[in-house]
Write a structure and sequence with these properties.
single chain; 410 residues; alpha/beta; Molybdenum Cofactor Biosythetic Enzyme, Chain A; Molybdopterin biosynthesis moea protein, domain 2; Molybdopterin biosynthesis moeA protein, domain 3; six-stranded mixed β-sheet; 7 helices; 28 strands
């Protein structure tokens, strides 16, 4: 057993990490598969949408001047000379005193400059009695009214939403350039660990970190593979690290104990850039490089594992996939209901509950108590230059619920 020779600050660890990460290369993807992916290039429309003037409701294509003075008590007659349907239009051209029955979405008839709603008319054989006035352009959709040719429709870096897919399709795009998803490999170590979902027995525990890390990495845009449970054996662990991926997440074996092989292997075979960080929990966390892979050494204690992922690994995965580096959590400013104590020189990740628009700290210790994160609504960060927060101080709460996080720019 040995201690850490030096603990890096969180800022130092982030500075090193940010120097290693940039978005991956582009790939072309079918529009039907692109939802949720990050757009690699600006999209400029090559067409007008709509590309023609069209009726915005069912009724009659008319000359607006022919409707002047029409009311329910002063009906005016127009001769119906044809019909215009969506996708077909009409070969007719209307003149003075004429109208053409038109359906919503049909191209506006030549000679017409407005559409009279059907409810303002009465049909009588080949004549329509109009009972209201319309001005030029009324109920007519204009060329390029939705999207004009040459318009930047979506900017690079946007995470595509379902409605974005619809807009792209409307301008004739069937495939799109997106940033490739980072590939993440999960390595869970420990002779005492059973596969995730197993019934705990004897002195063994079921893996919680592997399934949690997979869910987190997929949330952040990665494709994930998993080695399963790797014994506390250096050869087996080194073999598990040798994957053709961008990121390896090692859960367990990251500290300085007798069975903590991961830091030594990384130092000997690659670069151990950070090992030991001035934060609570997650102080045994580390990171470095093995070939072209970023390797994150995440503590085996579940809360520490989650914290280290949130601070470092998730940041890298999001950046590689073209997303914002910042936490994907909604932030809310609330008053803390009781004192939260910390130590100068250390960052604390404190789980909290939100009750009656106030914040109740749950615990900043107990790194093995994963259930504290399910009882928590979110977390508060106590920075390294603070001794904590007094009761009723306003703090930023990062909520585990992801709803509206992106629209708030977090």
């Amino acid at each position: 057993m040995r201690g850490f020779s030096r603990r890096s600050t969180v800022d130092e660890a982030l500075l090193w990490l940010d120097g290693q990460i940039s978005p991956l290369e582009h790939q072309s993807l079918s529009l039907t598969l692109a939802a949720g992916r990050v757009l690699a290039e600006d999209v400029v429309s090559q067409v007008d949408v709509p590309g023609f003037q069209r009726a915005m409701m069912d009724g009659y294509a008319v000359m607006a001047s022919d409707t002047a003075g029409a009311t329910a008590y002063n009906r005016l007659p127009l001769e119906v000379v044809g019909q215009a349907l969506p996708g077909q239009g009409s070969p007719e051209t209307i003149g003075r005193g004429q109208a053409i029955r038109i359906m919503t979405g049909a191209p506006l008839v030549a000679g017409a400059d407005a559409v009279l709603p059907a409810e303002q008319s009465e049909i009588e054989e080949q004549r329509v009695w109009i009972q209201g006035e319309v001005s030029p352009g009324k109920n007519v959709g204009l060329v390029g009214e939705d999207i004009a040719v040459g318009t930047e429709v979506l900017a690079a870096g946007r995470r595509l939403r379902p409605q974005d897919i619809g807009v792209l399709s409307s301008i004739g795009i069937d495939s799109i350039s997106v940033i490739r998803q980072p590939r993440v490999h999960i390595v869970v170590t420990g002779d005492e660990i059973l596969p995730g979902g197993s019934m705990p027995s004897g002195y063994c525990i079921a893996d919680a970190n592997g399934p949690m890390l997979q869910a987190l990495a997929e949330r952040d845009g990665a494709t994930v593979t998993n080695s399963g449970i790797i014994p506390d054996d250096p050869v087996a662990l080194l073999n598990a690290l040798d994957e053709d991926v961008e990121v390896v997440l090692v859960s367990g074996g990251s500290s300085v104990g007798q069975e903590d092989h991961a830091p030594m292997l990384l130092a000997r075979n690659g670069q151990l850039a950070v090992h030991g960080i001035a934060m609570r929990p997650s102080s045994p966390a580390g990171m470095g490089c093995l070939g072209n892979r970023l390797v994150f050494l995440l503590p085996g204690n579940p809360v520490s594992c989650l914290c280290a992922y949130d601070f470092f690994a998730g940041r890298a995965i999001r950046a590689l996939g073209g997303r914002r580096k910042q936490w994907p959590y909604r932030r809310k400013r609330l008053a803390i209901r009781r004192k939260l104590v910390s130590v100068i020189g250390r960052v604390d990740y404190a789980r909290v509950r939100v009750e009656n628009e106030g914040v109740e700290p749950l615990s900043i210790s107990g790194a093995s108590i994963l259930s504290s994160t399910t009882r928590a609504d979110g977390f508060v960060i106590v920075p390294a230059d603070s001794e904590g927060y007094p009761s009723e101080a306003e703090v930023d709460v990062y909520l585990y619920d992801l709803e509206n996080a992106e629209t708030e720019g977090l």
